[in-house]
Amino acid sequence: MKIAVCFSGQIRTGVQAAPNIKNYIGNLWDNCTFFGHTWTMNTRKPYNANGIHREGYPLDHDTLTKFVDIYGLYGKLVVEDYDEILKVKYNTGWNPMHYSWRKSIEVMQEYQTRTTNLDFDFVVKLRPDVLTRPTRNMSKEIANCLLKHDKNSFFAESIYSGQFGIIDDVIYYAKPEIMDRASKFAQVQESTNLMGIKPYLEQEKINLACSVQDLPDMGYAILREESLHRDPVNDWQGCYDDDMKFYQPL
Predict the structure, then answer these.
(1) Type and span of the H or E element at 30
(2) Which of 22, 124, 158, 232 gives 168 a disulfide partner, CB atoms 3.0 to 4.6 angstroms apart?
(3) H/E element holding 200?
(4) What are the E-state strand segments in the chain?
């Protein structure tokens, strides 16, 4: 099985999160080709979702170089200036999160056109700074997806969508053609101001399914700055607790 792993979004603590992501990918590492899209700026989430502004910081060269080295992203990562894109998109329904996801898929597709005999069986979308519970295993989750649902399915960590059809954007799975169609939501969102992806998937007749359905010991966290003293594999629970303590609504 050939797997395309597409990183999208700001790198932030992506270098420090890499041991956890490597652990998650596990024995599929040699089956994976990595791609990505990111930004020249790292923003900070407000503490406890209270809306208090926190200054962002630029992506530094050392972090970018290390991230590229870890995943072999030479020629397969696009870095864009957030402010420059915003100047063009400011009066549209543009969402940088979904834009970055779509761009990461386009990076993969452009690479494929330059490389013969590179057809992927599955595509995985990841945040660079995600931490999965260390007992989780990508091969088991892909098998779970393929065994329980048809090839027309788009898989998310959680399929709960809330009032506006917004679903968790941390980990997505799909066959290449479905990932391509689903990621075009970014373009539709820009022109229509549609907030959530779920109604778009319904319109496209793409089945939304849970990638971890019936699997035990699920869960993920985001590696925050407050947890950089922790081991992202051996102290995953501490990282998770920090994420809840500092960044979830009070």
Answers:
(1) none
(2) 158
(3) helix 197-203
(4) 3-8, 32-39, 41-42, 57-58, 77-80, 122-126, 130-132, 153-156, 171-174, 207-210, 220-222
- 170 vs 187: CA distance, rounded Å: 19
**Letter string b/e over residues 79-94, b meaning 16 or more CB atoms within 10 A of that residue's CB:** ebebeebeeeeeeeeb
Retrieve residue 73's tokens: 């992203």
Instruction: Quote the distance between the C-alpha of residue 36 and its chain's center.
Output: 10
In the chain, the amino acid numbered 72 is G
Residues 177-225 pLDDT 10s: 999 999 999 999 999 989 899 999 999 999 999 999 999 989 999 999 9
- CA 250 – CA 247 distance, rounded (Å): 9
Residue 137 phi/psi, 5-degree rounding, is: -145, 125
Q: What is the Cα–Cα distance from 164 to 146, expressed in whole angstroms?
A: 28
- The model carries a pTM of 0.95
Q: Beta strands 207-210 and 153-156: pairing type?
A: parallel
Q: Is 102 helix (H, G, I), strand (E, B) or coil?
A: helix
Closest to 242 (Cα-Cα) out of 151, 76, 129, 140: 129
Q: Assess contact for 78 and 103: CB atoms under 8 A.
A: yes
Residue 35: strand, helix, or coil: strand
pLDDT in tens, 106-152: 999 999 998 877 899 999 999 999 999 999 999 999 999 998 887 78
